[in-house]
Amino acid sequence: MQNRPSSLLPICLLACLTTSAAYGQTTTDAQREALVIQARQGALDTSIDGLKTLYHQTRDNRVREDLVALLVRASRNQEALAVCTWCQIEDYSDSELANLAGAARSAGDFDQALEMFRALTYRDPSNAQGWLGQALVHTDMGSYTLAQIALEQYNQVAGTTTAGLEAKGYLAARTTNAMQELDARQALVTQDPSNTGELQALYRLAVGLGASTAARRIMQSNPDVFSESDRLWLTYYEGVTDIRLGIHTDEPSRTANGLEQLNVVLRNPDAPQELITVAEYDKVVALAELRRFSEAEALAVRLENQHGQLPSYVTRARAHALNGMGRPHEAIALYEGLIRQFPEQATNPDDPLNEGLFYSYTDAQRFRDADKLLQSWRASEPEQRLDFTRTVRIENPNYQKVLLLEVLLEAWRGRPEEATEQLEAYQAQAPAEPYLWVVKGDIERDRGLPRKAEESFLQAIPLLPPDRKEVAEHGILLSRLQRGQWRGTTDEVARELVEARPSATRDDMAREWREMRAPQLSSTFERSKGQGSGTQASREWRYEVLLEGPRNSSGSRPFAQRIGQYGEFEDEDLYASYNIAGYEWNLYPATVTLAAGHGSQLNEDFLALAELKYAHNDHVTTESPRIF
Question: For position 448, what pLDDT does the model report?
Answer without folding.
Answer: 87
